[in-house]
# Entry
Amino acid sequence: MLAVQTERDLLLTAEDFECVRKLIHARAGISLAPHKTEMVYSRLAKRVRVLGHTRFRDYLAMLQADANHPEWEQFVNALTTNLTSFFREAHHFPLLAAHANARKEPLKVWTCAASTGEEPYSIAITLAEAMGTGSRAASILATDIDTRAIEVARRGIYSMNDVSKMSPERLQRFFLKGTGERAGMVRVQPSLSQNITFRALNLLDANWNIEGPLDVIFCRNLMIYFDKATQARLLERFAGLLREDGLLFAGHSENFSSITQSLRLRSHTVYERALGKGLRATKVSA
# Structure
């Protein structure tokens, strides 16, 4: 068997790479492209070494032998891509504010690819500016399959460079400036983070344990990692959680119109529930 990369200290064969592709697809729904060999090596090699293996084959055999092995969490974390920033795809946030202002009740929002927290905090800032932080404040559920990213998000600590594009007014209102050892860092104000619940969630799980109906779902730049069949299943579940006038925000390169009839395009990368489709129960488990 020829090794995919013979100059590395660890042996990764073409067969090993295909095994990685199958395992991450079955576990997390992620479809790795055939040309991602170098990425797989660079992201998993450290884990292989830490566990004392010299071949990827032995590492993968360990995972296959025990579906509950604690290393599965590290495996998924390593192969998850976290590319995010505050107010990324900025055109969505005025639409979110307008949607919030049109409602008299607190909004229920779910961001299902929360990564390291920039998206849920951007949502929280938008809603605080639109609705205030009192009785009309929103509740935000922020989930991600990457447990390391969720821990970063929960801490809410960022570099000044991360928030450099925000206005001074926003920085003063929503962040605490670090001093001493924390100089050059900021931390999200407790008044902003108190309405956000962070937890790890695999979208392939049979039971999401999420109470509906939801006003807004953010699922941006995530579907591109799934195959069409997985996308279709997830979109049906999303539609089932949205209230009648609820919105689904997608990423700039994503188009769901040909994948599902349960959601229809409302404006650029923003979808709403199709008439007669959606919530059948207040908690989705399928």
Summary: The CA atoms of residues 51 and 179 lie 39 Å apart. Confidence is low (pLDDT under 50) at residues 1-6, 278-286. The radius of gyration is 21 Å.
